[in-house]
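yo

u said u wanted the structure for the complex thing, so here. seqs first:
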Amino acid sequence: MYFRFLTSAVILIACCAAASGGPLEFRVCVEPDNMPFSNARGEGFENRIAKVVAADLGRTLVLVPIAQHGPAFFRQTLGSGRCDALLAMPKGVDNVLVTAPYYKSGWVFVTRSDRKLDIESFDDTRLAALKVGVPVVGSGPDTPPLVALGKRGLIGGLTRYPISGVQGEPVGARLITDVREGRIDLAVVWGPAAGYFVAQDDGAMTLRFTPVADRGVSFRSSIGMAVAKRNTLLRDALNSALARSHNEIAEILAAYHVPVEP
Amino acid sequence: MQNDYRGWMRLFSRPRIWPAVLVLTIAPSAWAADATSRPSVPAAIAAPEDGTWSMPAKNYASTRYSGLEEINRENVGQLKVAFTFSPGTTKGQESAPIVVDNTLYFVGPYPNVLYALDLTQPGAPMKWKYEPKPEASAQGEACCESVNRGPTYSNGRIFYATVDGHAVAVDAKTGAEAWKVKLTDYTKGETMTMAPLVVKGKVLVGNSGGEFGVRGWLTALDEKTGKLVWRAYSTGPDSDVLIGPEYKPFYDMDRGKDLGVSTWPADAWQQGGGSVWGWISYDPELNLIYYGTSNPSPWNDSVRPGDNKFSDGIFARDPDTGAAHWFYQIGPHDLYDHDAVNENILLDMDVGGKPRKVIVRPERNGMIYVWDRTTGEVLSADPYVHINSTKGVDMKTGRLIYDDGKRPMPGKVVRDICPTAPGAKDWNPSAFSESTGLLYIPHNNMCMDWESTSVGYIAGTPYVGADVKYYAGPGGNRGEFCAWDPVARKKVWSIPEEFPLWSGAAATAGGLVFYGTLDGWFKAVDDSSGKVLWRFKTDSGIIGQPTVFRGPDGHQYVAILSGIGGWAGAMVSNDLDPRDATAGNGWGSAVADLKRRVAKGGTLYVFSLPH
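structre next:
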């Protein structure tokens, strides 16, 4: 056991010294204003998970605040050596190495509890008469709920909430606020972005998982950390650290009301 | 008349030993025949060549043609670098260098510094620079790099737009800021990249950011104060679009009340795109400006059933009030991100034997359109590249006919879509030669495969991405530079280019056309034959706009900015990974070899004959 730990530590010194210029740091690029995931002050659940992992690795956590913009994002972060890792990376994203997942979540329906809208499927006939808010990217097929609603032509009551190109209030906060204040009847939100804000409303809001998949589009994602494509050493070290930190991570996710699936 | 004379001379300039007597004898009849069929610049815009280049398009007709002829087919081989200037940036340089009062001005990409170079001094040293200091975080908001398409000049001032959404006016002599006005909130993805046009004391400028769901507009600012005179939105109720009693579109599809609302589901028009980031022309006689609008938002068209007006079309407006006179939708319910913002070349020419006032424009969808600019009627729409995504324009209804087999849809794989999303030709402007009557078009020759299989990620939220791959179209060349006869409606000659073309063109009375390539060659070609007569390898790739001017020494100069970047060149300027075919929204595979050919850079080159 002792021997194995030593080996991984040595490897880490080699890999991270090269990547970040300092042997004792674990540099993580984070969105500066994206609660509950992260902010520049280190208050998000991803910030705290990074801290736990850094401690396990015996490294000092350095947060590098950088907002995700444009196609050069991976090059400007992992590629340039500005940071060693990115958090909240869905499995399947190209151009980076994603660690073993440390949680799995899904898209959720959020309504006001007093509306008693127990919607659990995009085939629910009540959807046609509701004002529905979903996050949008703007390019490609877009977010899973936008695709699901678009395929059914359920767009009469659709309100789009841009994720990209917007600074300030995170998309989850905007969606939940609008549900609470009745501007929309229903929000379809990525689970972690919803749970934190719903919990703040003390029962006034209800959150339900969407179906696992809808017409061939998955509504679940396994989330890991991302490292540069060639950095298998760090990926392996992080996998070990994440496994060792499993319980602490679970506590953090619970504290931020992240809806997790087994 | 003067122009026609020069054109006639050109007809006989090739056999250089022709006896003068014979030329004079044949001349009148040949000239007459030629003059009736050759398109010309509208009389209200035509002006004697004064040696300046005061706006990116050269004139209100957007011909990008200089009457200077010191540099010509015979001597262009001796063209040499007269001076250079490096702005020290490494992103895409799309700016046109403009020249007024013996001073050359250009704007770089972020941080959008405006440089003035003193042409009266040896080596054209810097006279002053103006730093608008745009917000650094605005850079990432521009979809396709924080480029700038250039400054423009009017009444002693230089006007341009900054990436963080300001319009600025700077004293042309001193570089002192006259005014600076914030027009957009870049934190909502609303940036500015276009070159403004000044018409009748108003600075016309629009917004960028269609892909982020901004609501597009064109704004007129008082040239003296920067105060807003009018703003015309591209979506929403008629009162916002400035549609009133003057609005008389040619086709039924563009007629009706509040189409900017009713052709969208619910309130989708509020995030409908239709931004205005391309080119504007102006006809002083009709007192109309012409400009295009960008693609509708979002890309996933299933959530925006309807024609999505007034995206992807061309507006004619009164510059004094902004009132719309007509609109023609080039791409009703756009499927391909085909912004309709390209250059509008205003010509007077015979169509079907009748003189017409027209707009000619090579469109992103692969066709060259000719409109009657009085009414908005489509007079012709002819393919200039291989097209299979559409089947042309229904000349009765004016509607573009899509091929449903090529329609990209979530969960589907669609191969061999021609042209690509950047289209047969993007923003980079063509030139019209008043000597030959031909249009010179720098463009792409590419097709694409589309499949929705990738996993995307923005700020912690996963989404369904698209794998888009561009590749060379028929012939295997990814780019082409062609000469197009707008009267005969056919290609006269073409030069296959290895890489897609992302630079503009300029034509001259010396029988030459200039353009640049992504791998850094600046070329001069014979306007009649397409023969490359001279070329020069610059320090980086070229996505800029050539301009031509007469220096204080009386000699002719040609200017171009090198500097790879923009949508096509971001592989190099943003260090994207060429192994990732989808990097740079599809350009990864298309220009994977570009990184092995050119590096980042950015330098102004000015050429002249040895003297």
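DSSP finds eight helices and 14 strands in chain A. Residues 1-20 of chain A have pLDDT under 50 and may be disordered.
cya
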